[in-house]
């Protein structure tokens, strides 16, 4: 483990293996007899080293998957060793208070009052977004807690931009709203949610007898790192009596940098916020968080009375099982607490700002090499294309495949606004430096030429 952490670029950045090969390797484990634990450990460690796309590699420019800080890895080992269950305060006072301490710190950085808001860790952004929709439903329609959606005079609907996260499709299904309840709002040419289009859609849906209850603004879209116009969304939601949720799963980390914090202006007015530490704060998955300025609505959504559970009432104690979706839950917050304690806020801010600077540098390098940028954001997601792609001589998919086949770098392809093909490079690794950006641009040029020749 020490060797792996010390040399992240020694592991493969891309992987090429057939399912059959892995299944043959695993066929030796029929569990009919005990095996030497040292040999098992060595075999499993080799499989994970060889056949994992290692996000800690400085040439990994894919999705929001940073390498893990050593302190976070140690924290995960401590959690596995002591196995605290955070269902109630009594089960693990230390782990519960560690998480509470971290959440209060982050709530304040997001502009919320730690004493007047609720927060808890989740398995990831999907669960945090699901929690937000459930709480917003309960807040808007209190009877839903007892009689469900069937007692309402119409169908509740929520609004997400076309660049918003697709987790809300699953959430709409899982909450019983139905996928049609996720109303898609167009984006402006700069890929931000179109507030005027949202206002028109709200009026149309109200006339049709639907029940708007929630708007989702995104702070750092997955596709392009764009931040929706949060102040304008907050104004509209206040005027329309709607719940404003900000999905800051990735971009929320900007709150830890004084230089980048203004990007999130307006987030402090949100009713709820999703924030994933595993996307930009260098901790292992999963480490999602949900913040809410309405503690009463959170309690109303998740309250439960089980006689066999220890009483957590009084003296500042609390029961996470009665204020969150999960019941038994491992300690998630320690792997964020320990890097924060080791680095301090100034150290964490420097790392975040370094990545933003690398994003700016990559933009300059790509422009100088003749590539065309397709998005505009101060956050380190870079979307781009080339004359060869625009002419049809090659495609983003062909370029990505060529890069992966050579094992040189990991980037992704995407569609912006659902129709513009693009290559996408995300800098989520603290170890990525100028030399890696130069190597990426050279590799892109080779991949574009090679894929174009293959197409001909």
Brief synopsis:
The protein has 456 residues and is α/β, with parallel strands linked by helices. Helix content is 43%, strand content 12%.
Topology:
Elements: H1 2-6, H2 19-26, H3 37-50, H4 70-82, H5 93-109, E1 118-122, H6 125-140, H7 144-147, E2 156-161, H8 167-174, E3 182-185, H9 195-207, E4 211-218, H10 230-240, E5 243-247, E6 272-276, H11 277-280, E7 288-292, H12 295-302, H13 334-368, E8 372-373, E9 381-385, H14 387-391, H15 396-406, E10 412-416, E11 420-426, H16 434-455
Parallel strand pairs: 2-3, 2-4, 4-5, 5-6
Antiparallel strand pairs: 1-7, 6-7, 8-9, 9-11, 10-11
Helix pairs in contact: 4-13, 6-8, 6-12, 13-16, 15-16
The CATH topology of the largest domain is: Aspartate Aminotransferase, domain 2
Structural class: alpha/beta
Q: Number of folding domains?
A: 3
Helix fraction?
40-55%
Terminal Cα separation, in Å?
46 Å
Element order: H for helix, E for strand: HHHHHEHHEHEHEHEEHEHHEEHHEEH
Total beta strands: 11
Report on the biggest sheet. Answer: 7 strands, mixed
Q: What's the helix count? A: 16
- Calculate the mean pLDDT score and round it: 92
Task: Provide the spatial order of strands within the biggest beta sheet.
Answer: 1-7-6-5-4-2-3
β-strand percent reads 5-15%
Q: What's the CATH architecture name of the largest domain?
A: 3-Layer(aba) Sandwich
Global morphology: globular
CATH-level-4 superfamily name of the largest domain: Type I PLP-dependent aspartate aminotransferase-like (Major domain)
Oligomer: single chain
Q: Regions with pLDDT < 50 over 5+ consecutive residues?
A: none
């Amino acid at each position: 483990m020490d060797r792996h952490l010390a040399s992240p670029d020694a592991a493969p950045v891309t992987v090429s293996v057939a399912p059959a090969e892995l299944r043959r390797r695993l066929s030796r484990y029929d569990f009919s007899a005990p095996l030497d634990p040292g040999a098992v450990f060595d075999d499993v460690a080799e499989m994970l080293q060889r056949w994992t796309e290692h996000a800690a590699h400085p040439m990994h420019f894919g999705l929001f998957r940073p390498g893990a800080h050593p302190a976070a890895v140690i924290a995960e080992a401590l959690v596995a060793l002591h196995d605290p269950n955070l269902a109630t305060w009594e089960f693990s006072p230390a782990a519960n208070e560690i998480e509470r301490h971290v959440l209060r710190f982050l709530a304040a950085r997001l502009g919320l009052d730690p004493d007047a808001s609720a927060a808890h860790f989740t398995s990831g952004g999907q669960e945090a977004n699901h929690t937000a929709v459930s709480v917003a439903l309960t807040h808007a329609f209190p009877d839903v807690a007892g009689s469900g959606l069937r007692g309402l005079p119409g169908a509740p609907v929520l609004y997400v931009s076309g660049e918003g996260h697709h987790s809300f499709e699953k959430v709409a299904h899982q909450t019983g709203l139905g996928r049609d309840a996720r109303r898609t709002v167009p984006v402006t040419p700069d890929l931000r949610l179109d507030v005027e289009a949202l206002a028109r859609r709200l009026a149309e849906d109200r006339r049709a007898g639907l029940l708007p209850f929630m708007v989702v603004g995104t702070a750092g879209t997955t596709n392009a790192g764009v931040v929706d116009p949060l102040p304008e969304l907050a104004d509209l939601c206040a005027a329309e009596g709607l719940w404003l949720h900000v999905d800051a799963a990735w971009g929320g980390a900007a709150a830890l940098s004084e230089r980048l914090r203004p990007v999130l202006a307006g987030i402090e007015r949100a009713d709820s916020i999703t924030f994933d530490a595993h996307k930009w704060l260098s901790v292992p998955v999963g480490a999602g968080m949900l913040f809410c300025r309405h503690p009463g609505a959170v309690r109303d959504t998740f309250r439960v009375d089980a006689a066999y559970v220890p009483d957590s009432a009084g003296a500042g104690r609390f029961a996470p099982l009665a204020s969150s979706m999960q019941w038994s839950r491992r300690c998630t917050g320690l792997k964020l607490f320990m890097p924060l304690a080791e680095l301090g806020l100034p150290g964490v801010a420097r790392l975040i700002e370094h990545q933003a600077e690398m994003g700016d540098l990559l933009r300059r390098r790509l422009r100088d090499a003749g590539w065309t940028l397709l998005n505009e954001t101060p956050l380190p997601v870079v979307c781009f294309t080339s004359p060869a792609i625009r002419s049809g001589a090659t495609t983003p998919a062909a370029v990505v495949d060529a890069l992966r086949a050579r094992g040189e770098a990991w980037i992704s392809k995407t569609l912006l606004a659902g129709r513009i093909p693009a290559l996408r490079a995300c800098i989520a690794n603290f170890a990525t430096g100028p030399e890696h950006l130069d190597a990426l641009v050279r590799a892109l040029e080779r991949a574009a030429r090679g894929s174009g020749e293959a197409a001909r």
